[in-house]
Design a protein that fits this description.
alpha+beta, 4-stranded mixed beta sheet, two-stranded antiparallel ribbon, 198 residues, 6 strands
């Protein structure tokens, strides 16, 4: 009995180590070349949430579809100015902070392209106290859209040149409705959430 228990513990430990390695490798590979946009509202009040969405629309309108990852950090001042103007025009009096860095994101599906949980390069725009619900998307390649107004196939083609064939298949396999990609990405999300708590 002790031998079976020992074997089970060793097997579970090996499986956990493989899962952690898989999560880290998958997240690192799939985040290369991708920049996300993250907008955090001042609060959850109806007014602050509506303002967040107006600012989102203005930022996306000011972002060139031809811009690339290397342009993201240079857009911070522009994004702050756009957000400040919209905040003032809306009759609010709080600040805004735009920053570029690596931030954690949960698993998210964008029109059939599934991005796993993990750390991604991102432009984060925090409005006021930054205590409200947030909004995020993939800025590069461009997958930021409202109500399906952008065709994700163009971004899919951009990803095809950025990723290996295996990684491209992994990120787009949600289009075929295959279940394993969701399970794999939920595993990545779970493991990464454990890392965040440390």
């Amino acid at each position: 009995m002790k031998k079976k228990l020992y074997t089970l513990i060793i097997s579970l430990s090996c499986a956990a180590m493989c899962a952690v390695t898989y999560a880290s490798d998958t997240g690192a590979r799939l985040s290369r070349g991708i920049v996300r946009l993250h907008i955090v509202a001042n609060s959850d009040s109806e007014e602050d949430q509506a303002l967040k969405l107006r600012i989102r629309d203005r930022l996306l309108a000011a972002t060139s579809a031809s811009a690339g990852k290397e342009d993201a950090a240079g857009m911070l001042d522009k994004y702050e100015e756009i957000a400040r103007r919209e905040i003032a025009d809306s009759g609010f009096n709080y600040g805004v902070k735009a920053e570029y860095g690596r931030f954690y994101f949960p698993t998210k599906d964008y029109g059939g392209l599934t991005y796993p949980a993990g750390e991604y390069d991102a432009v984060r725009v925090t409005l006021g106290e930054g205590e409200g619900q947030n909004w995020w998307c993939v800025l590069f390649p461009p997958l930021c859209y409202v109500k399906g107004s952008v065709d994700s196939s163009a971004a899919g083609q951009a990803l095809k040149t950025m990723l290996s064939p295996e990684d491209y298949e992994l990120i787009t396999s949600g289009r075929t409705g295959r279940l394993p990609v969701k399970i794999k990405f939920k595993l990545v999300e779970f493991i990464n959430s454990l890392k965040e708590k440390k």
